[in-house]
Design goal:
Length: 125
């Protein structure tokens, strides 16, 4: 059974870069045909898809975050990482990593079959 676990700092200062890691156990990042996404939920708001990395290593981003977000992976450690540059308090959210089987739209959050528990990130000075 695949399990995902997010890790990273709980507090980041404005203008800094946020870096979060998702560790995958019970499965592989290169297994066809899965995509691995970062999704967040700001306080009082809905879930927002941020970006994904495919089993092939290809990456995809939300247009609203493409200029600031970067997703990479370490296949040896079976981890994928989100970096978000120039954060502001509006980036305060619970951040989730999740898995989607190929064939669904990356933004169809109901179709994700495996989620991490989420990690709270607060942007504040």
């Amino acid at each position: 059974q695949v399990q995902l676990q997010e890790s990273g700092p709980g507090l980041v200062k404005p203008s800094q870069t946020l870096s979060l890691t998702c560790t995958v156990s019970g499965g592989s990042l290169t297994t066809i045909p899965y995509y691995w996404s970062w999704i967040r939920q700001p306080p009082g708001k809905g879930l927002e898809w941020m970006g994904a990395i495919a089993y092939s290593g290809s990456t995809y981003y939300s247009p609203s975050l493409e200029s600031r977000a970067s997703i990479s992976r370490d296949t040896f450690k079976n981890q994928f990482t989100l970096q978000l540059k120039s954060v502001t308090p509006e980036d305060t959210a619970v951040y989730y990593c999740a898995r989607l089987e190929e064939g669904y739209d990356l933004t169809s959050l109901d179709e994700y079959d495996t989620w991490g528990q989420g990690t709270q990130v607060t942007v504040s000075s």
